[in-house]
Write a structure and sequence with these properties.
The structure is a homodimer of 341-residue chains. The first copy, chain A, has 341 residues and is α/β, with parallel strands linked by helices. Chain A is elongated and about 85 Å long. A six-stranded parallel β-sheet of chain A has the order 2-1-3-4-5-11, sandwiched between helices. Chain A has a six-stranded mixed β-sheet with strand order 7-6-8-9-10-12, with helices on both faces. Chain A has three domains: 45 residues, 434 Repressor (Amino-terminal Domain) (Orthogonal Bundle); 135 residues, Rossmann fold; 129 residues, Response regulator (Rossmann fold), CATH 3.40.50.2300. Chain A starts with a helix and ends in an 11-residue tail after the last strand. Strand 2 of chain A pairs antiparallel with strand 2 of chain B. Chain B binds a DNA duplex (16 and 16 nucleotides) through helix 2 and helix 4.
Chain lengths: 341, 341
DNA sequence: CTGTTAGCGCATTCAC
DNA sequence: GTGAATGCGCTAACAG
């Protein structure tokens, strides 16, 4: 049996109250001698307060939940690391929830986390969430009254607390780089176009184009799915549309493009310049190393956690509500001046 | 305020006990009518038991802790996914703890998890743990009386519950493959040789060698550190030792080798055959795709969780105590018959 | 069949 | 300065 506060009381011959007072730093009027006696007993018996009991009476568990789709995804593991590191710095703990992008699991986990009395929830919504499902999730979330912060996606209609990266800017930076090099026919391998991030990156692409007076050509846009296979497929689909550069909306599909292009005997960047998005560590190792847009994912996790902690009833600071972090372009060897035309 | 069991009692005009009984499936003698009434009220008021309170009285939290060094490491994120999936299937939850391989944090997290009343701990010890530290950790662990399972490493002296992969066999398989192809001078880029996994892989390497009557040559062994940089450095270090193949003890250092070799104008597998270990997803994309030993990491997480759940007081099944999972070789394009000699 | 009571481990208000 | 009493939300003997 674990030693309880009662054991300390018996051992010292004092009451439970006194022990509790000194252990919680509210012992203004307790003489040093008593304090010492208690601390010594605590140390001797190895007493540590049962946090379940503390949680019941204080109504706080020093625990937050993180709802993501799949921790194996490099994006989310980076995020989770940022979250956990910030948690540790504040003496909090993290419950990890993988939904595999199933809306139903979002709901289930929100309920479970509420049951467990978490003090906050970091929520990266499942991508299968359409407008209706999003509203369902957020309605449930708000019915729990638990502070929450949305990650990587927003839904301003219902939720004003979020941390995202600027996808529009990322799309712009990648495209601008290619335009600056002289490319005028730039293909896009997007993600699913019902997702905000893909949509915004495409917006950035268009903005860059118009800034350089390059007409937008819808034929150059291939709607991918953020997978390796999608990237490979895009190469086939774009084969007959003249272009000198490809902007893949994530590194994974860039690898697919890279792979398929090589199979067909093309060289990067000689025949095609290629830009990715995410700057996964592997992009550095690729041959040639991949130019890619870097998103501060770890920071998203870290900042979101900070925000969430601020929203805790205890330190109810409602000042900062949203954060848009800035991506930047990492230029490597997969891009150069166009060769053909 | 969240609705409590008391609210249901008032609402239905019944006592708290009755509510508790039907909600916990112990209502043999409660008439259907009463049950229905209660269930309806529960549904209507959206009542869900506060798990903190339940935990306090039942002394179980349906939560386990996972202590690893860094979730960003592909190995651990795969592991964690296996753990979390199995948890979900059993209605459990997971608290994630990253130690960054700092022994002190191992200790801190063990204490915190115990304070939180977790029902079990999955423990992948920090690599900076020498014999003394290992004993310290496990002694602390056992003082909590919380069931635990060690992951990926063993310490039979104190702990008999673990799930590992067979590193010796993995080392053997990789080496055997190269020997079978005709290689007789096989360099090794190991991990830190004070770690069991590295040591065992080297043992497997030696066993394969002796089976094929190839003398062991210590000059061919380069002690790396499982990093990209380590892999790169090994190429320089091994430059003057004649060899036709390289067995890197993890994929990351294999990438380093691959990279450095290419920089020097060598071709894989023409000039050197290369085998990695871990079979990280990227190994498939590498050019040429990397032959690698696949460890069933997800399964390690999954099986360890199953084991842990079995060890729970409720279903105290002490039968299975250890599990050694089997790796296998995935042959791709980075290995072929030796060209030189 | 259902209600009363006690207690899980702790924090806290109010007396002494 | 310190202790007794109360309650957090729930489960589980034990009555009746």
């Amino acid at each position: 049996m674990r030693t309880t506060i009662k054991d300390i009381a018996e051992y010292t011959g004092l009451s439970v109250t006194t022990i509790s007072l000194v252990l919680n730093g509210k012992a203004d009027k307790i003489p040093e001698k008593t304090k010492e006696k208690i601390l010594k007993a605590v140390d001797h018996l190895g007493y540590r307060p049962n946090q379940v009991a503390v949680g019941l009476v204080k109504k706080t568990t020093k625990t937050i939940g993180l709802i993501i789709s799949d921790i194996r995804n490099v994006f989310f593991s980076n995020l989770a690391k940022g979250v956990e590191d910030e948690c540790r710095r504040n003496g909090w703990n993290l419950i990890l929830c993988n939904t595999n992008d199933m809306h139903e699991r979002d709901l289930a986990y929100i309920r479970v986390l509420a049951d467990k009395g978490v003090d906050g929830i970091l929520y990266a919504m499942s991508v299968d969430s359409n407008r209706e499902k999003t509203i369902e999730s957020l309605t449930l979330m708000e019915s729990t009254r638990i502070p929450y912060v949305m990650l990587d996606r927003t839904f301003r209609e219902k939720c004003s607390h979020y941390v995202v990266t600027n996808h529009e800017l990322g799309g712009y930076l990648a495209t601008q780089h290619l335009l600056e090099l002289g490319h005028r026919h730039i293909a896009c391998v997007t993600g699913p176009l019902h997702l905000d991030d893909s949509l915004f990156r495409l917006e950035g692409y268009k903005r860059a184009l118009s800034e350089y007076d390059v007409p937008y050509n819808a034929d150059l846009i291939y709607e991918g799915d953020y997978t390796l296979e999608g990237g490979r497929a895009s190469v086939k689909a774009l084969a007959n549309i003249p272009h000198t550069a490809i902007f893949a909306f994530n590194d994974m599909s860039a690898y697919g493009v890279h792979n398929a292009l090589k199979m067909q005997g093309f060289e990067i960047p000689k025949d095609y310049s290629l830009v990715g998005y995410d700057n996964i560590f592997f992009s550095e190792i690729l041959d040639p190393p991949l130019t890619s847009v870097h998103q501060p994912v770890y920071e998203v996790g870290k900042e979101a956690t900070k925000l969430l902690i601020k929203m805790t009833p205890k330190s109810a600071d409602k000042s900062v509500q949203e954060l848009v972090l800035t991506p930047h372009l990492v230029i490597r060897k997969s891009t150069q001046k166009p060769n053909k035309e």
